[in-house]
Design a protein that fits this description.
Blueprint: E1 2-9, H1 14-26, E2 32-35, H2 47-60, H3 75-86, H4 90-102, H5 111-119, H6 125-133, H7 135-150, E3 158-163, E4 166-171, H8 172-188
Parallel strand pairs: 1-2
Antiparallel strand pairs: 1-3, 3-4
Length: 190
């Protein structure tokens, strides 16, 4: 039996966007969405390589046409995602933010774009911006990143699951497919 699942992502990762668009329908269990600072991970991502992969997979999956944002620092957006997680709006905020970035072509280092994503899930703009400035939110993002590293996460997106056979990591968008197979097989043996 699977006890937990954690979906680690960074809003600056286009591959995380692909995973976010399908994780809830692909996995047989719910995963906790956890924002982390991907810059702190062992394996930095190659943005050009990710772009090609994302373009091919988005077309294959009939997602909305991609509009690439200019490169952006995701720190403010990750603080906003952490704040959204703390108030129970993680998934809708993250999906709206990813869509702002990769379907709308808007950089998430712009407060207006972060506020638009928050508005899509009924987060008050002033509360969202204030939440990004809270020390507790910054500390929570730092703690989540540290825990992810301790669990062996080396890149985003990564799905971490634990159950009767211990913890397993499934890296990248393709890792979701492998995780889904593994989780379904585990459920059938119960």
């Amino acid at each position: 039996m699977q006890d937990q699942a954690a979906f680690y992502f960074d809003l600056a990762s286009p591959e995380s966007y692909l995973s976010a668009e399908r994780i809830m329908t692909l996995l047989p269990i719910a995963a906790e969405w956890i924002p982390i600072r991907s810059a702190a991970l062992a394996e930095p991502s190659d943005l050009a390589e990710q772009r090609k992969l994302v373009e091919d997979l988005a077309e294959e999956r009939s997602l909305q046409e991609l509009r690439w944002p200019p490169p952006f620092d995701s720190e403010q957006a990750m603080l906003a995602a952490t704040y959204a997680k703390r108030i129970g709006r993680s998934v809708p905020f993250v999906l709206a933010a990813f869509r702002q970035a990769y379907a709308g072509g808007r950089a998430l280092d712009n407060e207006d774009n972060i506020v638009i994503a928050g508005s899509a899930c009924e987060m008050h703009p002033a509360a969202l911006l204030k939440g990004c400035q809270l020390r507790t939110v910054s500390d929570a993002l730092e703690a989540a990143t540290k825990l992810a590293i301790e669990r062996g996460v080396r890149r985003v997106p990564t799905l971490w699951v634990t159950g009767e056979h211990g913890a397993q990591l499934f890296e990248g968008d393709a890792g979701l497919d492998a995780a889904a197979v593994e989780l379904r097989a585990g459920m059938q043996t119960q």
